[in-house]
From TrEMBL:
PANTHER family: ABC TRANSPORTER PERMEASE PROTEIN, INNER MEMBRANE ABC TRANSPORTER PERMEASE PROTEIN YCJO. Pfam families: BPD_transp_1. The lineage of its organism: Bacteria, Bacillati, Actinomycetota, Actinomycetes, Micrococcales. It comes from Cellulomonas wangsupingiae. Residues 55-266 form the ABC transmembrane type-1 domain. The keyword Transport applies. It is found in: Cell membrane. SUPFAM superfamilies: MetI-like. This is Sugar ABC transporter permease. It comes from the Bacteria. It is a multi-pass membrane protein. Keywords: Cell membrane, Membrane, Transmembrane, Transmembrane helix, Transport. The chain crosses the membrane at residues 55-80, 92-113, 139-162, 189-206, 252-270.
Length: 277
């Protein structure tokens, strides 16, 4: 029963990855002949300012978006887990962003940032908001963060809700009788008991945000200039449009290793914190 799935996974996933690693040691342009060049592609990556900037932008974006997503998702999940009216309806509404296509939502946000917000900024007399932030090299990345956090929160809320519902209500009742404040109940009961859910959400969020692509395409297309070019976008443009197939494949291999290392380090650190709590 498992063999067909394993075979399909190997043919359509593992084999292309191995082929990519192989071609990263060549000068292959995606067509025609090729020759082995050893580690030249990898060594050239470290002297490329554009690639260095794409890594810096991606890390900056991923860290900010991960923190904001989990803070906001946990706050909303705690609100939805309380005894409120229309609880089921609100849970459904908050999950809607997760089922919407990123590109479609991205173009809607593009219109808001480029047209609606500047009008509001002009009416309020806010200078930096009076023009599209997507055209500002220093602020464009914030628009991408807003879109990414808005959509990613939906999935994280579901996981946090699942964790919150595993906490026995008797613990909160006992804490209330002891006079524990809301913050004390959260710090001593809620967060320690959902720490495993926090760990998986943080790891998945950082991993997904490090691979940001659609959000950038929909909002800025990497601009202004190259201010918001993510690693994925640089790999796509150079590999499929710029004749740098082997070179960007080497970049993709480095990118893969970076994501794996960061994910494992983050997982190990957060799991150690779970044990301590």
């Amino acid at each position: 029963m498992v063999l067909p799935a394993v075979a399909i996974f190997f043919v359509f996933h593992t084999l292309p990855v191995l082929q990519g690693i192989f071609f990263s040691f060549t000068d292959y342009a995606g067509y025609g002949t090729w020759q082995f060049v050893g580690l030249r592609n990898y060594l050239n990556l470290f002297g490329n300012d554009r690639i260095a900037h794409s890594y810096l932008f991606t890390f900056q974006f991923a860290i900010v978006a991960t923190v904001l997503t989990n803070a906001l998702a946990l706050t909303i999940a705690m609100g939805l887990n309380a005894r409120i009216r229309l609880q089921t309806t609100l849970r459904g509404l908050y999950f809607i962003p997760n089922v919407l296509a990123v590109l479609v939502v991205g173009y809607v946000f593009n219109y808001l940032f480029s047209n609606s917000l500047p009008v509001l900024g002009q009416a309020l007399g806010v200078e930096w908001l009076s023009t599209s932030i997507l055209a500002n090299e220093d602020l464009a990345w914030l628009g991408i963060v807003v879109l990414a956090v808005w959509q990613a929160c939906a999935f994280n809320i579901i996981l946090y809700l699942a964790g919150l519902q595993t906490i026995p209500g008797e613990l909160y009742e006992a804490a209330s009788l002891d006079g524990a404040s809301t913050w004390r109940r959260f710090r001593s009961i809620t967060f320690p008991l959902i720490s495993a859910f926090f760990t998986i959400n943080m790891v998945l969020s950082l991993k997904n945000f490090l691979q940001v692509f659609d959000h950038v395409i929909a909002l800025t297309n990497g601009g202004p200039g190259t201010a918001t070019e993510s690693i994925s976008l640089v790999i796509y443009r150079g590999g499929f449009q710029g004749g740098e197939y082997a070179y960007q494949t080497a970049n993709a291999v480095v990118y893969l290793v970076v994501i794996i290392v960061l994910s494992l380090a983050q997982l190990r650190f957060l799991q150690s914190r779970e044990v301590e709590s």
